[in-house]
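A reminder from the course coordinator: this example appears on the midterm review sheet, so study it carefully.

Given structure:
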């Protein structure tokens, strides 16, 4: 369960309002789970999207660490993401304030014009230099699930969670990629492997998803053995998670990953 604005320490709220001016209204975000609070702040200076997380006693927990990664990478992904306006840290909490973006979640269904925007954005991310800032390593991130994580290593910038809710499209047709909590450095084709389950969720068949990601040179040139190994390991990771956690979302994602693995190995 998420924290309310009024539950935040007074010194943190004061630090935030030192950047924003008085907060008049707080609108909680309906989705997302990588922070203890995520909301739109209505202030005298306009709207700000805020994410905040609580430390674990005297150290950073996973949510705080994810916010630090977002803050570190933000200055070099301005082409793709809302800008970071400020940071506030007090009372054992870290808060980030981002430019507020008016837009809608993307539609990844077959025939949607958003698929062209998605392709363009993925191409641009894959062609962007990976900054030398703290982020996750693909090899270390999946080393518990795959026999040989070495093929996942690389120097490409990876968002790793390009679902429809993290791909915001404004009324003027600009696309923003939000929630860089799991920004990772690794092999470029991994971004596409992680995108495929979301394409299946949007109604694409495994074959159609395979054809769509094949437009990217990083996928078309990837060794089939490496793609197969990760596909199997990823499906097993989520199958195991579904067995240990009773969560409809996890079960659904495990099914999507399993469908892709079945197709990949039987084609």
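Designed residues:
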């Amino acid at each position: 369960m998420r924290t309310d604005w009024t539950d935040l320490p007074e010194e943190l709220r004061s630090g935030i309002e030192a950047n924003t001016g008085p907060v008049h209204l707080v609108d909680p975000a309906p989705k997302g789970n990588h922070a203890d609070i995520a909301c739109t702040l209505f202030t005298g200076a306009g709207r700000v999207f805020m994410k905040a997380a609580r430390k674990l006693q005297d150290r950073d927990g996973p949510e705080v660490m994810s916010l630090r990664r977002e803050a570190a990478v933000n200055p070099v992904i301005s082409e793709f993401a809302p800008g970071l306006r400020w940071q506030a840290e007090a009372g054992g909490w870290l808060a980030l304030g981002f430019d507020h973006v008016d837009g809608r979640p993307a539609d990844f269904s077959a025939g949607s014009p958003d698929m062209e925007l998605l392709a363009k954005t993925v191409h641009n991310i894959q062609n962007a230099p990976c900054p030398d800032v703290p982020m996750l390593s693909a090899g270390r991130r999946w080393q518990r699930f795959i026999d040989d994580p070495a093929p996942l290593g690389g120097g490409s910038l990876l968002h790793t969670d390009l679902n429809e809710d993290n791909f915001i499209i404004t009324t003027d047709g600009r696309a923003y990629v939000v929630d860089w909590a799991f920004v990772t450095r690794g092999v470029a084709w991994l971004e596409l492997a992680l995108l495929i389950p979301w394409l299946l969720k949007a109604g694409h068949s495994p074959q159609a998803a395979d054809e769509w990601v094949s437009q990217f040179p990083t996928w078309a040139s990837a060794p089939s053995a490496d793609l197969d190994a990760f596909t199997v390991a990823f499906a097993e990771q989520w199958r195991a998670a579904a067995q240990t956690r009773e969560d409809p979302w996890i079960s659904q994602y495990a099914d999507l990953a399993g469908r892709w693995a079945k197709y990949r190995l039987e084609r």
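Residues 104-266 form a domain with the Aminoglycoside 3'-phosphotransferase; Chain: A, domain 2 fold (CATH 3.90.1200.10). The chain has a mean pLDDT of 95.
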